[in-house]
Write a structure and sequence with these properties.
The protein is an alpha/beta fold. The chain has ten helices and five strands, in the order βαβααααβαβαααβα. It has one domain: Rossmann fold. A five-stranded parallel sheet has the order 2-3-1-4-5, sandwiched between helices. The longest helix is centred in the C-terminal third of the chain and has 25 residues, at 170-194. The chain starts with a strand and ends with a helix. The model has no long low-confidence stretch (mean pLDDT 89).
Length: 195
């Protein structure tokens, strides 16, 4: 049984901590944003918020709202990821259409939503200082609106599991992530045996 665990959350919510927890458990991970950043570099563009969002929009114009999910499936197949593990974590879903692609590919696909307030997310983005992170609250608001236009709100509403990453130490939230991943795998594999 092939199990996919999708992570959805607004920028800076803490999705990467859940991904790190999966890696720690030996679960292969794919970050959808990394595939968009790779495509941005291939096009000879600098990794700015504007360029990465522009490339993401261009991919979706050409291939629909499921564009990045198609890139993920291609990567899974090309790298034989499912030969190494029956579980894979995919960080950064943005649309229900992406969820549909993964529902068709995996025997069981679940979504985990990671939540944090805009104030907390902005603070984290400033602290991590990634090249494509926002440099002002106004830019973050514009980015949030574009993310919401991709369909992220629908996924947050449809999520099977929710984690709130607010007013917590990093280590505390990380432990919650480990616990949730173990619970999901146990439940999904248990339900498969029961059926």
């Amino acid at each position: 049984m092939l199990i996919g665990i999708g992570i959805v959350g607004m920028p800076g919510s803490g999705k990467s901590l859940l991904t790190d927890a999966a890696k720690n458990l030996g679960i292969p991970t794919i970050v959808m944003g990394d595939l968009v950043r790779e495509e941005t570099k291939k096009r000879g563009l600098d990794l700015t918020t504007e360029n990465v969002l522009s490339v993401a929009e261009d991919l979706r114009r050409k291939y629909g709202r499921k564009a990045v999910a198609i890139l993920v499936i291609r990567k899974i197949k090309e790298e034989n990821i499912m030969q190494k593990s029956d579980v894979v974590v995919i960080e950064g879903l943005r649309s229900p259409e992406e969820k549909d692609v993964f529902n068709d590919f995996f025997d069981r696909f679940v979504i985990v939503a990671v939540h944090a307030s805009p104030r907390t997310r902005y603070k984290r983005m400033i602290e991590r200082g990634r090249m494509d992170d926002t440099k002002s609250i106004e830019v973050m608001k514009k980015r949030d609106l574009k993310e919401l236009a991709f369909g992220i709100a629908e996924l947050l509403a449809m999520a099977d599991f929710h984690l709130v990453n607010e007013n917590k130490e990093k280590g505390e939230f990380y432990k919650e992530c480990i616990g949730l991943l173990k619970t999901i795998i146990e439940e999904v594999k248990g339900s498969d045996k029961a059926s």
